[in-house]
Amino acid sequence: MAEIIEMPKLSDTMVEGVIVAWHKEVGDVVESGELLAEIETDKATMELESFYDGKLLYVKVGEDGSVPVGELLAIIGEEGEDVNALVKEYEAQKGDSEGADKGDSEGAGKTKDGAGHSVPTGYYPSGSAVSSSAAVSSSSAVSSPFGAPAAVDKSATALAGNGEGRIKASPLAKAMAKERGLDLNRVPGTGPDGRIVKRDIEDYKEVASSPAKTAPVVAALPVGTERYTEEKTSQMRKTIARRLGESKFSAPHFYLTMEIDMEKTWEVRKAMNEVAPVKISFNDLIVKAASMALRQHPKVNSSWMGDVIRYNEHIHIGVAVAVDEGLLVPVVRFADSLSLSQISNETRRLAGMARDRKLQPSDWEGNTFTISNLGMFGIEEFTAIINTPDACIMAVGAIRDVPVVKNGEVVPGKTMKVTLSCDHRVVDGAIGSAFLKTFKLLLEDPVRMLV
Predict the structure, then answer these.
(1) How many CB atoms lie within 10 A of CB 443?
(2) Which of 106, 310, 354, 412 is the most interior residue, by most CB within 10 Å?
(3) How confident is the model at residue 155, as a pLDDT?
(4) Minimal CA–CA distance to 237: which of 7, 41, 39?
(5) Using CA atoms, how far apart are residues 37 and 78, in angstroms rounded to an integer?
(6) Of the candidates 303, 252, 250, which has an alpha carbon nearest to the alpha carbon of residue 423?
(7) Strand 369-373 relative to strand 392-406: parallel, antiparallel, unpaired?
(8) Alpha carbon distance 443, 285 (integer Å)
(9) H or E segment to which residue 431 belongs
């Protein structure tokens, strides 16, 4: 019996997935537990394993194609099953209301069989219920490695990529090319059907390094010429846009800014790093101070849930990490109970996983408060958009050398500005101010964090 595989929801904010690579082709035997595909979500690239035994009869899209969560992705069953009938039965079960919403777009996703009947567009094995001529009439079927009919010019599909088609390369080759700054359009592929593989990237580096084969230098375009490049919006960037848009325009933000004397924190950190087993960063001290301040002001450690306000008794601090495609917020759990060395180890581990796109849902879910620190980039002061469902986010600026007044005299000093963004539905000005006052006290007298 055929089994329908739908696009799974691999993260709490995922609305669609992009196929990075299929590890099985239509017609291949699939066993339960085998890797079926790699799927790019808004936060990471995840592996999809098969839960069924059988043959891969149908896949909705090829590599780089996207499928909404809960929609048909693939079919696994027995050889000879009527794939066309299975797809039609699935679409019928989705309900008439869904079909009405699609309107005229239904025709765009179908093609004609030899008898002139409308059938779903997808990738079918040769000899399936849909004829080869029907598969050829669909542009997506021609460009796909799945069930490509014999009539297709294989010399065209052997190319790694061209101006109109996608680049065929293994995930490892793509990662290596990105790391080395190589343009995959320039790399000849030696894998099946011209697919670029690991050895092609390694060999190309040797060729590129040879002076005799260096590509000619292209002269700069004349001043005033208009030009631009476009890049497909990643799943991560789509989710950032959606979530922050919802937060900014649904939660009434207000902002509280405070300047903190960091002279003692600077000295204490220097002394600790002379004996600490791991290097303590200023951000580690900020996370620790924030977690202790949240313990004293639990209303800041809260969430807007619509009908109720949730006051969290645990303290999970999200630490914003910049990656190439946007921003990820891994979570330091029970931060108030961790030592500075433990916070340092955990933030470094999570930041590394975030940059390598290896975070799992358990690493980014459950934050009760968020810290965004741009001080290392020289930003003195900024405001941040609340990371829902948190009620607050704290924006941390750079530590600056400035003149300060102490004991009636102007002396050199070190200060840092922080801005607390608050959801006014949950946190009022007095509550946010009291939290910042405690946070300031802890950083201006850091010994309080060590007792």
Answers:
(1) 24
(2) 354
(3) 33
(4) 41
(5) 20
(6) 252
(7) parallel
(8) 8
(9) helix 429-444
Rounded (to 5) percent helix, strand, coil in the chain: 35, 25, 40
CA distances, 124 to each of 4, 224, 372 (Å)? 15, 50, 48
The rounded distance, in Å, linking the Cα atoms of 397 and 371 is: 11
Beta-carbon count within 10 A of 290 CB: 29
Cβ neighbours of residue 384 under 8 Å, at least 6 residues apart?
A: 320, 370, 372, 393, 394, 395, 419, 421
Range 75-81, long-range pairs (CB < 8 A, 24+ positions) = 75/2, 75/3, 75/4, 75/5, 76/2, 76/3, 76/5, 76/30, 76/50, 76/52, 77/1, 77/2, 77/3, 78/1, 78/2, 78/54, 79/55, 81/2, 81/57
Do residues 99 and 106 touch, judged by C-beta distance below 8 A? yes
CA 396 to each of CA 272, 290, 377: distance values in angstroms, whole numbers, following the listed order: 22, 11, 11
Note whether 397 and 381 are within 8 A (CB).
yes
Q: Are strands 29-30 and 16-22 parallel, antiparallel or unpaired?
A: unpaired
Helix (H), strand (E) at residue 206: helix 198-209
When pLDDT is averaged across residues 6-11 and rounded to a whole number, the result is: 85
Residue written as tokens 């779903």?
Answer: 120
Q: What percent of the chain has pLDDT over 90?
A: 32
Whether pLDDT at 15 is above 70 = yes
SS3 of residue 156 by DSSP: helix
SS3 375: helix
- Would you name the residues annotated as active-site residues? 424, 428
What average pLDDT does the structure give for the chain?
Answer: 78
Determine the Cα–Cα distance for residues 253 and 426; give it in Å rounded to an integer.
Answer: 10
Residues in the chain: 451
Cα 297 versus chain centre, distance: 32
Q: What is the pLDDT of residue 192?
A: 67
Longest dimension (CA), the chain: 94
DSSP assignment letter at 214 = P
Q: What is the residue type of 394?
A: M
Using CA atoms, how far apart are residues 439 and 444, in angstroms rounded to an integer? 9
Q: Band the pLDDT of 276: cuts 50, 70, 90.
A: confident
Pick 134 or 64 by higher pLDDT: 64
Q: Which of 147, 88, 140, 137 is nearest to 116 (CA)?
A: 137
pLDDT tens per residue across span 197-224: 777 887 875 444 444 455 555 566 667 7
- Binned at pLDDT 50, 70 and 90, residue 368 comes out as very high
Query: What does each C-alpha distance from 147 to 36, 120, 400 come to in angstroms?
Result: 17, 15, 62
